Amino acid sequence: MELSEQNVKKQRPVHLDLQTISFPATAIASILHRISGVIMLFAIGILLWLLNSTLTSADGFASVQSLFDGFVMKFIIWGILTALGYHLLGGIRHLIMDAGHWEELASGVSSAKATFVLAVVFSIIAGIWVW
Q1: CA nearest 46: which of 85, 89, 75, 69?
Q2: CATH number for the domain formed by residue range(s) 24-130
Q3: What is the pLDDT of residues 35-57, one digit of tens each?
Q4: Which residues bind heme per the record (predicted)?
């Protein structure tokens, strides 16, 4: 019994270098979906702060409106919209997969790549709209 345990221990990698591992499109789609969800969590705080500032007074509304003239706020809003777009597309993809479609490897990879393309298109459209 000890001999088989030693063989198992020898086969396990000692150090995983994540930069050398090639992730499939489905894994990248899943990781990005989680990251976009975390971004949306922080975005809720930013958007609530902006909403609160605009509702407190006319001066607060004017100050928030002046923030949108700057590059930084436009970039933040574009980032929020991009994260929201990807998260929605990824969520729809997951819902379709939960319904029993696109569960095979080939269709999963295709749907992940389609999600990437649609997210880039949405991001470009959001950028044009913000700027």
Answers
A1: 75
A2: 1.20.1300.10
A3: 999 999 999 999 999 999 999 99
A4: 87
The whole-angstrom separation of Cα 112 and Cα 122 is 15
Q: Would you kindly state where each structural domain of the chain is located, as residue ranges? A: 24-130
State the Rg of the chain over Cα. Answer: 22
Q: In angstroms, rounded to a whole number, what is the distance separating the alpha carbons of residues 50 and 103? A: 41
Residue 75 pLDDT > 80, yes or no? yes
Q: Which residue has the tokens 């706020």?
A: 73
Which residues participate in the annotated binding site for heme? 87
Residues that constitute the known binding site: 87
Q: Residue 97 carries which side chain, given as an amino acid letter?
A: M
Alpha-carbon distances of 48 from 37, 42, 54, 95, rounded to whole Å: 17, 10, 10, 28
Helix (H) and strand (E) counts in the chain: 5, 0
For 67-81, give one letter per residue: b (16+ CB within 10 A) or e.
eeeeeebeebbbbbb
